[in-house]
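TL;DR need structure tokens for one chain.
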Amino acid sequence: MTGPGRRSSTFSRLLRHGFTDPSAAERLLDGDELSPVRNDPVLLEALGGTADPDLALHGLVRLLEAQPGATARRELLDTVIAAKPLRDRLLGVLGASAALADHLARHPRDWEALVTYEPRDLHPGVEEFERGLAEADDAVALRVAYRRCLLSIAARDVCGTTDVAETAAELADLATATLRAALALARAAAPDDAALCRLAVIAMGKCGGHELNYVSDVDVIFVGEAADGADEDKALRAATKLASHMMRICSETTVEGSIWPVDANLRPEGRNGPLVRTLSSHLAYYQRWAKTWEFQALLKARPVAGDLELGEEYVAAVEPLVWQAAERENFVADVQKMRRRVVENIPVAEIERELKLGPGGLRDVEFAVQLLQLVHGRADASLRSGTTLNALQALAAGGYVGRADAVQLDDAYRFLRSMEHRIQLYRLRRTHLVPEEEAEQRRLGRSLGLRSDPVGELNREWKRHAAVVRRLHEKLFYRPLLDAVAQLAPGEARLSTVAARERLVALGYADPASALRHLEALASGVSRKAAIQRTLLPVLLGWFADSADPDAGLLNFRKVSDALGKTPWYLRLLRDEGAAAENLARVLSAGRLAPDLLMRAPEAVALLGDGDGGRGMGGGGGGLEPRGRGPLEQEILAAVGRADGAVQAVTAARGVRRRELFRTAAADIVGSYGTESQPAEAGQGALVDLVGGAVSDLTAATLAGTLRAVVREGWGDELPTRFAIIGMGRFGGHELGYGSDADVLFVHEARDGVEEQEAARAAGAVVSEMRRLLQIPSADPPLLIDADLRPEGKTGPLVRTLKSYEAYYRRWSLGWESQALLRAEPVAGDEELGRRFMSLVDPLRYPQGGLGEDAVREIRRLKARMESERLPRGADPKLHTKLGPGGLSDVEWTVQLLQLRHGAEVEGLRTTRTRAALRAAREAGLLSEEDAATLDEAWVLATRVRNAVMLVRGRAGDTFPTDARELGAVGRYLGYGPGRVGDMLDEYRRTARRARGVVEELFYGG
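>> reply
TL;DR here they are.
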């Protein structure tokens, strides 16, 4: 009757001690192996203190079963019960590592390695591990000895005798001893090869940095030289054989598994380069060909095996090159791009569980620390440590990193590394993914000392530390720049002016002295404005550095801040609206046009927020979404109605135009650059359509308002003649760029009872006054009206009656005029008159039966003449976006020829828009899918380049800038990172060349 009661009591005790399967645990405790101690409370208490009591108990039973006899089992049990240090170490390992439990089951006497600790055992180094491996005479024995040493490291780790940094250092020392033992085995197997060469093994990565994981590739580089009197080629072949054999000894799977892979891919030329090089060959490569990331990797280079004298020579030779790396062009951008590429290559399903490579992971800390070391280690040798935490401590001590930031990063890094260690220790597998199963998370949490709610606490702590890393890893680089110009608390280290300038130069600032003055002006003082700007500037500096002109970004921010800094909504906008600060940074550093528009009315910065209306924006509202023509025209006409006179009315209309141009430019820049929360717009055509549509609508609304203002001032409510404005060219095609003139035709028709001469005088006066008002010098950009596409061109009257147009087109119209009319669309004025004008010209632009051969030949002749005569002298035709081969003119003339020939039959071709007509031609089978895509890609790219040039230079241009910084800014807008201007130009030439091939076939040959 007592059996069930005892069972129930034991069951409850097991639950209290953390067992998740008390029934299975009870059966194991009742087995023969543990019968002598099944009721001993010490054992149960010790098992309950492990990461996984079930796993520890199971491992203990397996170890007892594996003992060679009853005496050995009794010896093990007695020691476990009597010796608390052994009990904690052995059960701690068994509860944390199924893989080491397997090892103990295969090698049942290895538990004795945990029995005693001499003082030297508490922190063993390479010599102690070499003694532990000394008797291994083949690869299998080396694996057994390696695991035996690993047992002692794991025991110290799980019992808290060593912290995570000390554990990582011990693992690196064990790896060093193992590489030496493996090389000794390789040399013993090939003594003749060993005699021919000197071979040094240089540890890289975490092994070189003295911060290795439990299971990690051991990165190495091999340096070889000929022994005295030996031929160099033969020596290198011999050294390569030794190195390859050493790698196999460590990496190959045997009956005892493998140790870890030895990875030599960090060597010059990677896996494509020779495995072993001479010292001079290494130096020649690094001096001529090495990329930035290779110098970053060399930060951790450390000789560990083989000819240590040669290894030291190697490190001494490459060290000066490492500390010159920060002087390389685009250094910071290259390092940051490498980091982004790592993140982009993580599978989407894994990124949230990635401890090492994911956002807020270990690599973020390591990259940030290495970046700072490379920038400042040139002048400060105290920073030249390969160990992340040591380097972080040195950076804080030298004032290169804020002390509070360093402490937080140190804590986060230690926690994340501890997680990584315990995850790998369980199966001794190379992984950096946090497990998804609750049981594994429970074991992981308990192994880290989280006992009350292991799973919940683990996830909370992990997310908290990852958030700290995400928040700090980029700011780490920028925040001390503010401290360099601010008042610090007593005892706080400060970044020196020289170091601050070094860092600014590394970030791409051309004038670090001015940049420091701007920072001082922005961050100094005790005002609320200065406090908020001190918080924002570390992030803003990073965004400025991601542009082609960081100096301009910082200067423009200071100007905006000076103008708006005392405005409560401005500070609140930057502080509280997540998108606003980043959008502002992008806009201020992307070129001249958007900042110039903003500086003329800084309150437009409100548009960069999430859009809540108000903030002094009149009827403009917030947000970057361009407004449609209807709301724009309504706002402008309302402003005109309130104005006192035409000048004031048009000034108001131009002010709206300036604000909306800024909105469009900002949306274009942010869409092109992308933000941290929103990647860059993938479809380049969508951004082209956005800009073309928005600027065209804005121009139409501005003309409508100007027309209303002129009529009201001169004639009151009604002009004595009906009056319409017809958009032409890019204006009519909804394809205006930022710097485009407005191509138009003016048409009028006298009202009933009005003399023709009076009507003509009124229409002419309206046109003259509109052009004058829209070009009056002011803070707002002028709107130039170009009427050169009118009948008779510059020699013809500016404005005609509808009948005059009809008579001209019937008698005198030329082929190019019909082609120009393909883009005609009413944009302002009398709508009914505009419709009648379109009815008049439709038969001209969409002729029944298409074009005759003579007309086609004439169009081709005109195009050929334009190509030869109109290209500016000295311009590179292949890079001229308008007139060059495969440029805008090529694509547009090809599409327009299709419209003239087939527009009468194909309804979809009756559009003023190039891309829409191209789609319609493809759908009608007039050109292939591939040809249509080629022409569209070229047209979109050429349009984007023109928009970029205007945004960057503040003035229009049809070719790429010659100034290096401006060219870089165009590249950044087009999605090319730092140092990739050549790729951009090559891609443009390729795209244009393919388009020209299609044009040759369709336009000249079709």
